[in-house]
Specification:
globular; Aminopeptidase; seven-stranded mixed beta sheet; alpha+beta; 7 strands; about 160 residues
Length: about 160
């Protein structure tokens, strides 16, 4: 079987419907938001002029993941250290179950971060990981995020600071 090229592209009206192809029924929505919720957050960001983008992760023409990274609006639960400076919030990251554990998600994450930095400037990044989602926690730790003791609901905050 020929390997399809993996790449990221911004969500548009054309590729938006392809997100329904993503097979993620093995992951609880308590762990990762649904595709519909990620798209609602995308629309909110667009409507309110927030910087950032939602990205489709593609294998050839097939959509195999989605990642939303954008400007963080302040939440009461944000860790104190994040209140000192503008930062980005990773609001949703879903990979198709057939493409996990192959390095694709990590490469996509790093590509999206690099693209966000190039377009909008370098800032720290925050995200939430459900307290019982150990695989996601390990993934983000491998990618330079640090777990905090701050929580929002059942999610621990993880923070990543730009390399000096």
């Amino acid at each position: 079987m020929e390997e399809k090229p993996i790449y990221i592209e911004k969500i548009t009206g054309k590729n938006r419907e392809q997100l329904a192809q993503i097979q993620r029924d093995d992951i609880s929505e308590a762990f990762v938001d649904s595709i519909d919720t990620i798209l609602e957050l995308t629309e909110y960001g667009i409507t309110h002029g927030c910087v950032g983008n939602t990205w489709a992760i593609k294998a050839g023409e097939e959509c195999i993941g989605v990642l939303l990274l954008g400007e963080a609006l302040a939440w009461e639960t944000d860790p104190k250290e994040m209140r000192r400076t503008p930062f980005y919030r990773l609001m949703g990251f879903v990979m198709d179950r057939r493409y996990r554990n192959r390095g694709i998600g990590g490469n996509a994450l790093e590509s999206v971060i690099a693209q966000c930095y190039a377009e909008y400037g370098v800032r720290p990044i925050a995200l939430g990981v459900h307290k019982d989602n150990h695989k996601a926690a390990d993934f983000y730790l491998r990618h330079g995020f640090q777990k905090t003791e701050a929580m929002e609901g059942n999610d621990y905050y993880y923070l990543r600071y730009p390399a000096e």
